[in-house]
Amino acid sequence: MASKLLRAVVLGPPGSGKGTVCERIARSFGLQHLSSGQFLRESLGGGDGESPRGRPVLWSCVMDGFGSILVAFLPLIPTSFRCGACTGFPRTLGQAKALDRICELDLVISLNIPFETLKDRLSARWVHPGSGRVYNMDFNPPHVQGVDDVTGEPLVQRDDDRPEAVAARLRKYKDAAKPVIELYK
């Protein structure tokens, strides 16, 4: 029996756990999870939001890329595919309006986490660059400090997760996300 496709977006500031929440929901209910961060890593060959030449990624290009995947992907979804959940996208009002032109959302989840909690989480976050696996030195540390559990390769701390960059990053998110959250209310 075919079931209706559920299209959901999970919004939240950096470090709020969007990816973790979606992965747990997907695993628990046998659903599909689409991550804009994963899309960027796979499309651009890096996990830091920069192009292979080290230039910042223009979000209009990301919208074109991610949006074209959604446009091409959604009509071809097999009946066994029950849910698509996007994390990390849309980040701006323009992206939200563009996404609304591509598909109708059934559910929007907005994660609201205290600033101090986010600051602590981000400052303690380290990643494996090749896979995007995330570790937190406070509550999800690797077995060996500074080394990926699976590959044994070194972990890195993203420049924007360093304590001095976190406050500016969270302010920027708050300013950009406010109209997106209002749109989806």
Automatic annotation (TrEMBL):
Q: Which Pfam families does the record associate with it?
A: AAA_17, ADK, ADK_lid
Q: Which InterPro entries match?
A: Adenylat/UMP-CMP_kin, Adenylate_kinase_lid-dom, P-loop_NTPase
Q: Which SUPFAM superfamilies match?
A: P-loop containing nucleoside triphosphate hydrolases
Domain Adenylate kinase active site lid as annotated: residue spans: 125-160
Q: Which GO terms describe its molecular function?
A: AMP kinase activity; ATP binding
Q: Which HAMAP family match?
A: Adenylate_kinase_Adk
What protein does this entry describe?
KAD4 kinase
